[in-house]
Design a protein that fits this description.
heterodimer; A: about 350 residues; alpha+beta; Rossmann fold; OB fold (Dihydrolipoamide Acetyltransferase, E2P); six-stranded mixed β-sheet; five-stranded antiparallel β-sheet; 20 strands; about 25% helix; B: about 325 residues; mainly alpha; MetI-like fold; two-stranded antiparallel ribbon; 2 strands; about 65% helix; globular; disordered C terminus
């Protein structure tokens, strides 16, 4: 197992800058999730650790050793991809054997048999061993693909959206399985995804990547509750954080342009939040309440029923904001309601830069 | 699921079958003509209207493979009885087979020309497809400086009609002693097929996801091992299709073979019609030579037919 460091990594493809000045530190045995939209540079980062791509600038360290001159074979990493990750024409067994048979680390036959048996048992694919890979379902394929990674006992597992091509049920099941597997193996995982639910539920640590830069790095809890800027706030969470323009007047939030007011608690006020400064107020939908005696009146614009809860879109003038309410709450579209927020949970962002005042301070 | 057909579909299908049959007949007619002439007695080869029903003979093939001379008198009964069966069929045409002093049968030029064709076509196909596959792989997988220009340059070698370069090539070949040699023709045909092979193979290799090889690289294999273990098996269909086309081109090539070779390395295409000139043309012998000449391509294509079908539709449908 290994400790991975990326230092000041930049990568350009022609005129296109894929990554700029990227720094990552993945501790030994950590489940690190790199979260970002398509094209943010996640896969490029992963390929650089794998040795399939060379950084234009900067260094990659594995266990403190600069691996610039190491090929993919020497780095001893395992890669699981979203698709095309199994060799066609081969059976499942042959696929699992393949990583154990290169010249640089050919294992004895008995050892190969043993490792395949163990991996197959762990992933419950024993009954599939003699099947050709094109006779597998999507979930089975990804299981085999993970199996091909674990038989090797590599120093790092690199996973490039391994669950994205699967249907929702299976994705959920494999998510848990993968997390359990990682804890069981005690292995270092670098997991790339655009799915913030995967990031939140699996990661020990999450790095949010946007346009080739790490925007914020931290535990899922930190990222969720204390987003560094409005990008992270709106990217993480489903539905995303409500972001409302306004300013601070006498310790109360006054929203433009309708001038509705909401209270703030002392805790959310940090240095720099002076009266009159243009701000963006961020509040998670679950921290918005519907109450009959609440300070602000709004119209119900839309209701989405999610079973255990409802997501209600509220309209105040032109401002929309979403509230997550228990499913039993009776609301109808265009019905007038009153709402409040949890003043302890409000995050203040600078209007110009979008950076949270807590992080800027 | 039961297939329900409307009457208009049935009509359409019937018309389609008739059209396909007609086209097939048009395409196969010349081949039938050659094949039937190859088994006809000489006097029926050029009848008008053509003879369709006849007693097939093997004599054109015997004549094709042997040297013969005209006989003044018909063979005596003793000579006839002593001759093997394949010589008797020649006697009927008023000819006998030429033998040397030891009584050994003198072969015609055809077998050696046929062998030359095989040597040149097979070697140049292997070389062109082999080099083409490697080149295509390089272009497909690596960032090559001026890739588009290089590929265009490779293609441009086919833009001139080959005959245009025939005279300069002949002079160069004579200067370096490559004329009338197998090596000379092999180089020529390989160069000829190479651009085609590179372009076709690039299309096929582009379609193979590079993730497969990258997985192999990460699994501890070298680029070469990944190429042979992963890419080559996946590219088999493309290689088969490319090989068939290269083989057909090399096998059928006439102009350069005519100019560059005359005896030692002459291939079958210029040889077969050269037999027309001596005396009255014996069309049955020419047909027999042509018929045998058609077989290797037919066999080769037949053996690779599954790959070819997939190869043809490959790349035609893009996502």
């Amino acid at each position: 197992m290994a400790h991975i460091q990326l230092k000041n990594i930049s990568k350009t493809f022609g005129n296109h800058t894929a990554l700029s000045n990227l720094n990552l530190d993945i501790a030994d045995g950590e489940f690190f999730v790199l979260l970002g939209e398509t094209g943010a540079g996640k896969t490029t980062t992963l390929r650089m650790v794998a040795g399939l791509e060379k950084p234009t600038e900067g260094q990659v360290f594995i266990d403190g050793v600069d691996v610039a001159d190491w090929g993919a074979a020497e780095r001893d990493v395992a890669l699981v991809l979203q698709q095309y990750s199994l060799y066609p024409r081969y059976t499942v067994r042959q696929n699992l054997e393949f990583p154990l048979k290169p010249k640089i680390r050919r294992l004895p036959e008995a050892e190969i048999k043993d490792r395949i048996a163990r991996a197959a048992r762990t992933l419950r694919i024993e009954h599939l061993l003699d099947r050709k890979t094109d006779r597998l379902s999507g979930g089975e394929m990804q299981r085999v693909s993970i199996g091909r990674a674990i038989v090797r006992k590599p120093r790092v597992f690199l996973m490039d959206e391994p669950l994205s091509a699967l249907d929702a049920k299976l994705r959920e099941a494999l998510r848990t399985e993968l997390k359990n597997l990682q804890m069981q193996l005690g292995a270092t995982f670098l997991f790339v995804t655009h799915d913030q639910i995967e990031a939140m539920s699996m990661g020990d640590k999450v790095g949010v990547l946007n346009h080739g830069r790490i925007v914020q790095m931290g535990t899922p809890h930190e990222i969720y509750n204390n987003p560094r800027d409005t990008y992270v706030a709106s990217f993480v969470g489903s539905p995303p954080m409500n972001l409302i323009d306004g300013r601070l007047v006498n310790d109360r939030a006054v929203m433009a342009p309708m001038n509705f007011e909401l209270p703030l608690s002392g805790g959310t006020r940090t240095g720099g939040a002076t009266d009159g400064r243009p701000l963006v107020f961020g509040i998670r939908p679950e921290d918005v309440y519907l109450e009959s005696g609440a300070p602000v009146e709004a119209q119900v614009h839309d209701v989405e029923n999610h079973g255990v809860e409802k997501i209600v879109t509220l309209r105040v003038g032109d401002t929309m904001l979403r509230a997550t309410v228990p499913a039993r709450t009776a609301v109808a579209i265009e019905q007038p309601v009153r709402f409040a927020w949890n003043p302890d949970k409000v995050v203040l962002f600078d209007k110009g830069s979008g950076v949270s005042l807590r992080h800027a301070g | 699921m039961a297939a329900v057909r409307t009457s208009s579909e049935v009509t359409f299908n019937r018309i389609a079958i008739v059209v396909v049959l007609l086209v097939t007949i048009i395409f196969l007619a010349p081949i039938y003509w050659i094949a039937s002439t190859a088994f006809k007695p000489r006097n029926l080869a050029t009848t008008i209207p053509p003879t369709v029903v006849f007693q097939p003979e093997i004599s054109p093939f015997v004549k094709l493979f042997t040297k013969r001379s005209q006989m003044r008198n018909p063979p005596t009964p003793e000579e006839y009885a002593a001759a093997p069966w394949w010589e008797r069929v020649v006697f009927d045409g008023g000819e006998k087979i030429v033998r040397d002093g030891k009584g050994e049968v003198q072969w015609s030029g055809y077998p050696s020309r046929f062998m030359n064709s095989l040597i040149v076509a097979i070697t140049s196909t292997v070389l062109a497809v082999g080099m083409g596959t490697f080149t295509a792989y390089g272009f497909s997988r690596f960032r090559v400086k001026g890739e588009a220009d290089l590929l265009f340059f490779i293609l441009s070698t086919r833009m001139l009609p080959p005959v245009v370069v025939a005279i300069p090539m002949f002079l160069m070949y004579r200067a370096v002693g490559l004329n009338d040699s197998h090596l000379g023709l092999i180089i020529l045909y390989t160069a000829f097929n190479l651009s085609f092979s590179v372009w076709l193979m690039k299309g096929f290799i582009d379609e193979i996801p590079k993730e497969y090889e990258e997985a192999a690289l990460v699994d501890g294999y070298t680029r070469m091992e990944a190429f042979f273990k992963i890419v080559l098996p996946e590219a088999a269909t493309g290689i088969a299709a490319t090989a068939v086309f290269c083989f057909i081109t090399a096998w059928n090539e006439y102009a350069f073979a005519l100019i560059m070779t005359n005896r030692r390395a002459q291939t079958a295409p210029p040889f077969i019609p050269s037999q027309v000139g001596s005396g009255l043309p014996d069309w049955t012998v020419i047909a027999a030579g042509t018929f045998l000449f058609l077989l290797p391509v037919a066999i080769f294509t037949f053996l690779l037919r599954n790959h070819l079908l997939r190869g043809m539709s490959f790349g035609a449908i893009r996502k």
